[in-house]
Amino acid sequence: MPLHKGSPASPAQAERRLALNPFFGEANPVGGMTEAPPHHQLPDGPLPPSSAYQLVHDELMLDGNSRLNLATFVTTWMEPQAGVLMAECRDKNMIDKDEYPRTAELERRCVAMLAQLWHAPDPATAVGCSTTGSSEACMLAGMALKRRWAKRNADRYPGSARPNLVMGVNVQVCWDKFCNFWEVEPRLVPMEGDRFHLDAETAAALCDENTIGVVAVLGSTFDGSYEPVAEICAALDALQERTGLDIPVHVDGASGAMIAPFLDEDLVWDFRLPRVSSINTSGHKYGLVYPGVGWALWRSPEELPEELVFRVNYLGGDMPTFALNFSRPGAQVVAQYYTFLRLGREGYRAVQQTTRDIARGLAERIEAMGDFRLLTRGDQLPVFAFTTAEDVTSFDVFDVSRRLREQGWLVPAYTFPANREDLSVLRVVCRNGFSADLAALFIEDLNRLLPELRRQPHPFTDDRGSATSFHH
Ligand SMILES: Cc1ncc(COP(=O)(O)O)c(C=O)c1O
Is residue 449 domain-resident? Predict the structure, then answer.
């Protein structure tokens, strides 16, 4: 007699079996996968998970190595524990505050920590939110500026007045997008001579009764330099005294808002300046978290018009949210909280100082080669831009970028905007994980290439666009 005897499945059991996830178990690979699945249309049937994994994995091997990507500001290394936490949270939707109240609470704690770090007058009442990155944070901050201006000018808008936003021509492309999407006139201050970012006097001179705000960048994507936020605020104070115009400032601290508080404590750029009404940063840049998380904060609830805020269920009550997206993973916010907890002020200071030291050291060594001229030195953001020295005629920055790519290094080369279109540069972004050892290997590779570049009869890069992977 058999030990176990199967019984015929009841209809209810048969239904349970049908509810199994088709991803479980091996699908029958009909014909042993003699044909590759199509690339641009949904395949007719399933593949075993191991085959699907291998196909995708193999194709991705041809991507650049993110750690050697000196073009990106975005975090490319976190410690394994952060990775584990993120894996544990990737199924949690950030918007489901009621279902995931602890994740919601970690987001609130991060906002409170940033409010304090950026010297909000009353951190308990400062308002803020997480976003997918600085771009979304800038859109939200720009929207708040526009709505506040529209309310102040309800007699003229949307009638005759057209809102404008004053900023340097060096702003990141997210501000062009904001102006385009939200129908705001961008008023761009061009570069002039050796001034590669916004200056206070020109910014104030461009403001009028239709200016919704001035954007000051800490620091510039083009060269890593900090814009003079305090001077810009002072020029706008003077403008207010002369004309009565009261123009708020938004600080785009995508990178610098997580550098300056730790390394430049005496630099006054944040909510200590009463004119600074909002600040954004990218948690996934020098906040040291994998992409995509950003933060937007307003100095007080008055700066964020109530009608822009939506409410979702939270612990039987409701919780205000401000976002463009609805669904978004909770993992990055959890990783941000982990990193705040893990490093604290001292830890952040140590990490950012090391990165700045590496950037400065690398810039000096590049300068010492004699073939290049530094525009910035890595002493603000740990980022520097450099061009070829005056007497170099056999190669240009695009050649250098192309040749470095052969060694696996991604270093963008690009031309500056108005009024310095005559100037093309290379830019190196140092990040946590770009160690002194890697920096030394980079110098070795550049040194090895230089004799060949010097022997060129003239610059070789005809197609500058394809020579560099860079897009602002
Ligand atoms: C100054 C500045 N603002 C905004 C952004 C956009 O940030 P994100 O990539 O987080 O959307 C960047 C990105 O480099 C930046 O440098």
Answer: yes
